[in-house]
Amino acid sequence: MFESLLTAVDLTGQEFLILTVIVVVAGIVRGFSGFALSAIVMASAVIILPPVQLIPICWWLEMTASLLMARGGWQEADRGVVLGLVIGSTLGVPFGVLLTTSISVEASQLIVLILIIVLAITQLAKIRLAFLATKLGLYGSGFAAGVVTGLASIGGMIIAIYVLSQDASAAKMRAALVLFLFISSLTTVITLIWFGVMNGTAVARGLSLAIPTTIGVMIGQRLFIPRFAAYYRPLCLSLLCALAGTALVRTQFA
């Protein structure tokens, strides 16, 4: 049975087990922080699969996590803001997918890892971009998130920067990210199918990794303690920098 699974996902046993561990850890982080699932998968698994193959896997993982967490996001998030971000994201995703399917694996790996590091450092430094707190900033952030989602499936990190510019509470930021990731996933899949990125192998990989992701998210939700909320984001971002930095060294200097 396991051999049949490996054939369906086109992975070796070792690769599949490593990916399983990665998605459990990423699910835990998503469960208590509300974001970073795809970023952690990208930063860790890019040495196993190229970004263009990880993007549809991340779609399934994000959808799985979002279905588990969307209710709280809908209740607490600013739905008007989330809608504006989703509109911008929907327009931006095709540009990102077009880019990632047009460049070499090496180039896409480099771009993805540098993006993760830069975005993580930007948030760790608590850089607030005042112009984002405008109507143009709203739709522009959504568009940029869409491009990055199509390129590396890490649009949530762009949205985190946008929310940071609003001086929102940790709970509100978490809720906005959760709701954005859920709704934008519904629009993103159309582009992935259109470009042929979401194929049979991608579906098999995504579905097979959905269960360990669910386990991780449920563990992460139980680990979420409101009084420690201020520490979750720095912890996750530091982890991302370490993972992406390690992967960058391995892919560029191995």
UniProtKB/TrEMBL annotation:
Keywords, comma-separated and alphabetical: Cell membrane, Membrane, Transmembrane, Transmembrane helix, Transport
Pfam families for this protein: TauE
Membrane topology annotation: Multi-pass membrane protein
Listed transmembrane segments: 16-33, 40-61, 81-103, 110-131, 143-164, 176-196, 202-219, 231-249
A single Gene Ontology CC term: plasma membrane
Main location: membrane
Location of the protein in the cell: Cell membrane
Organism superkingdom: Bacteria
Similarity comment text for this entry: Belongs to the 4-toluene sulfonate uptake permease (TSUP) (TC 2.A.102) family.
Name recorded for this polypeptide: Probable membrane transporter protein
